[in-house]
Amino acid sequence: MKISEKLVYIIFSIIETLLVLRIMFKLFGANPANGIAAFIYGFSYPLYAPFEGLFKNLTYGRFIVSLNSLAALVLYTIAGFIIIEILVYFSSREEERKKDTHL
Predict the structure, then answer these.
(1) Is residue 23 exposed (0-12), middle (13-18) or buried (19+ Cβ within 10 Å)?
(2) Which residues pair with 60 in a beta bridge?
């Protein structure tokens, strides 16, 4: 795995982790005034913002399922996968081109 692929993988892993924590905190009703919850909500908001208002939250008793956060998680996961596959494709073409010039 090349450095560019690793970098994209790390960035999207951080994004996905933040969104999973946001989903979990919302699901279990974490107090937004708590320092950790406030940090996660604040840090993940720019990632979540484009999806805000897309769906209504589902409520089951005291549990809240944030479909907007789930949509963000799915789309960022897909985007990360596509970007990594594009990088792999072009790096393999680069290696083939180098082999052809050395023959």
Answers:
(1) buried
(2) 63
What does the block give as tokens for 84?
A: 């990594």
The pTM of the full predicted model, rounded to 2 decimals, is 0.85
| Number of domains composing the chain | 1
Task: Give the domain range for residue 83.
Answer: 3-102
Print burial letters for 38-70: b (CB count within 10 Å at least 16), e (below 16): eebbeebeebbeebeeeeeeeeeeeeeebebbb
> Are 64 and 58 a contacting pair, CB within 8 Å?
yes
Indicate the Cα dihedral angle 65, 33, 15, 21, nearest 10°.
-50
Q: Is a pLDDT exceeding 90 seen at residue 100?
A: no
Q: What is the three-class DSSP state of 39?
A: helix
* pLDDT tens column, 42-84: 999 999 999 999 999 999 999 999 999 999 999 999 999 999 9
Look up residue 53 and give its amino acid: G
